[in-house]
Write a structure and sequence with these properties.
Chain lengths: 413, 148
């Protein structure tokens, strides 16, 4: 890589040991990427702060950076912690694991991060504007911020994010460059009704299906209702990034880099389109449904973390009814959304209904021993993908309204 | 090549430098690190993989490319921390996020291992049980003795 005189000085320790450490790692990585130079960035979302992801090596990395005196150079938000920092004791979370999580949190806090502890950083903390160069890790957040907001981030993973935060730079390559952001393949939605404007579970299925089919290609989606909600695009982002490597998508007439199909492709050629019809999504729903019977004992909502609108919709769907005996209903969100829910009385309604409001983390990181759960109901394709392997629960998949019914009745047909 | 002949030398592109030797553990299928290898044991745990149950520790791990989550980097770091890591990796193509594992582990633990890529035709000649010397700095892989 070509370094500026300032970067050379940083590498030799002018700005402290932590900056030299971080830039040394980024420079080696840049050589692997084939990047030639760095560009400045305006913010970072770090995803390396959940202890359970890589264990002690991840903690060693964070504590080394902290011990070297690292401070973030740009506003930097944090992805989920391994635990709900306030309520972990209510979640039967083991003491030893909580201590590792606490050390991880402390290491990042010492660097001056903004402690959002959320996988939905587009719902808390500083938001980038269209075209801004940023480094976000956490796959759903990458797809959302690239596509729906139009800020520019490559598909980053753990540790690169923290190094970029410390030096305030990233490699000039990949999705940071306009020429790499055009569409590769047309996706045509056919035969859907108006439900496609607001049913997040349909968009989860669509994202899951396309994530598997697309590989590294950038899709341009045609045929979506112009009034499709942000929550639908959030569900799509999470599902496509979980089943594949979706990092940027365009929805014609909806997302900012796609005023039209033609504009989204630029000079690239569309090639053979992918057509998706309602029966295709039924097949994806069947593939994600790992539980044979309709009986469920835990309902998990908020993967990615629930928005205000989603929590409000849940309160409305429950309509004053209570979560049934023998069913636990968890709502995962971040503290910013929870503060709004409390301020407007929705949190109280949900708690009265028996919904357990949880922040900073989600169920996928909890050791499940002792709960006795066997079957999970969710409206999230990402939860549905990971729950069987990570926490040993089989899954029923449904819309938010169906999950609300499941919370009350213990059944998701 | 028959036994007793000159060792075969395969040209290789260095991604992570260093020199290592060991017995090859080879597969034609992509390998998943996050959720596919248990860093505590070095064992392959990916249920559908032909190498399920095999240990990667000390082996020259030969697979075409990685699959799955970008957290694979952390799995390599944790294996290097525990000393369960492979002796070297040979790919056809290597995702940068995987190569980041040895880069960071070198900073943290002073431990690393070479990663090289080879052409598909050369890749196809490497078999489980081969005794390999991976010399990333010299840009070559030597097959010292062919496996059974």
């Amino acid at each position: 890589m070509r370094l500026t005189p300032g970067e050379e000085a940083m590498l030799s320790g002018r700005d402290g040991e932590a900056a030299a450490f971080a830039l040394r790692i980024l420079t080696q990585l840049g050589d692997l990427y084939g990047a030639e130079e760095f560009i400045p960035i305006t913010q970072v979302h770090v995803d390396g702060c959940c202890y359970q992801t890589a264990g002690d090596a991840a903690l060693d990395f964070a504590e080394r950076l902290a011990a070297l005196g690292a401070r973030v150079a740009v506003p930097t938000t944090t992805n989920v912690s391994g635990r709900d920092i306030q309520r972990w004791r209510e979640h039967r979370f083991p003491e030893a694991l909580a201590e590792k999580s606490r050390r991880m949190e402390a290491a990042y806090l010492s660097m001056g991060v903004i402690p959002t502890w959320t996988c939905a950083p587009y719902l808390a903390g500083p938001l980038p504007r269209f075209g801004e160069q940023i480094v976000w890790a956490e796959s759903n957040a990458i797809a959302y911020v690239n596509s729906v907001i139009g800020a520019r981030t490559h598909r980053y993973g753990d540790y690169v994010d923290a190094c970029a935060a410390v030096v305030g730079r990233t490699h000039r390559f990949g999705l940071h460059l306009a020429e790499n952001r055009k569409g590769d393949v047309l996706v045509r939605l056919e035969g859907f009704g108006p439900e496609l404007a607001a049913d997040t579970s349909l968009w989860g299925l669509l994202g899951y299906r396309l994530g598997q089919a697309l590989g590294a290609r950038i899709p341009v989606i045609e045929g979506a209702p112009a009034e499709v909600t942000a929550d639908c695009l959030k569900a799509f982002s999470a599902a496509g990034a979980a089943s594949g490597s979706l990092a940027l998508f365009h929805v014609a007439g909806v997302t900012p880099e796609a005023p039209s199909v033609r504009a989204a492709f630029g000079r690239r050629r569309a090639g053979e389109p992918i057509v998706v019809r309602p029966p295709d999504l039924d097949a994806t729903r069947a593939a994600l449904t790992s539980a044979p019977a309709d009986r469920v004992d835990v309902v998990a909502l908020g993967c990615p973390h629930f928005s205000y609108q989603e929590a409000w919709s849940l309160a409305r769907a429950l309509a004053g009814r209570r979560v049934g005996d023998g069913v636990a209903c968890f709502l995962f969100t971040n503290r910013a959304v929870l503060a709004d829910l409390i301020a407007t009385g929705i949190a109280g309604e949900l708690e009265t209904a028996g919904v357990r409001l949880t922040t900073d983390t989600c169920l996928l990181h909890w050791p499940m021993q002792g709960w006795g759960f066997s079957t999970l109901a969710t409206n999230s394709a990402k939860f549905a993908k990971y729950a069987p392997g990570l926490i040993g629960l089989s899954v029923r998949y449904g819309s938010l309204e169906q999950c609300a019914e499941a919370a009350v009745t213990g059944r998701l047909p | 090549m028959s036994k007793g002949s000159q060792p075969t030398v395969v040209p290789a592109r260095r991604l992570i430098g260093g020199r290592a030797e060991g017995e090859a553990l080879a597969t034609a299928h992509p390998l998943t690190f996050w959720g596919g290898i248990d860093p505590a044991t070095g064992l392959i745990i990916e249920a559908q993989h032909e190498l399920l149950g095999q240990s990667v520790t000390g082996k020259v791990l030969v697979f075409p490319r990685g699959a799955g989550s970008s957290s694979g980097c952390g799995v390599l770091m944790e294996m290097l921390r525990r000393g369960n890591h492979p002796a070297a990796i040979i790919n056809i193509e290597t995702e940068a996020v995987l190569a980041l594992g040895p880069i960071i582990a070198r900073e943290l633990y002073g431990r690393s291992f070479p990663i090289v890529t080879v052409k598909p035709a050369h890749f196809a000649r490497l078999r489980t049980g081969d005794r390999l010397v991976v010399d990333a700095d010299a840009g070559q892989v030597r097959v010292q003795r062919e496996g059974a």
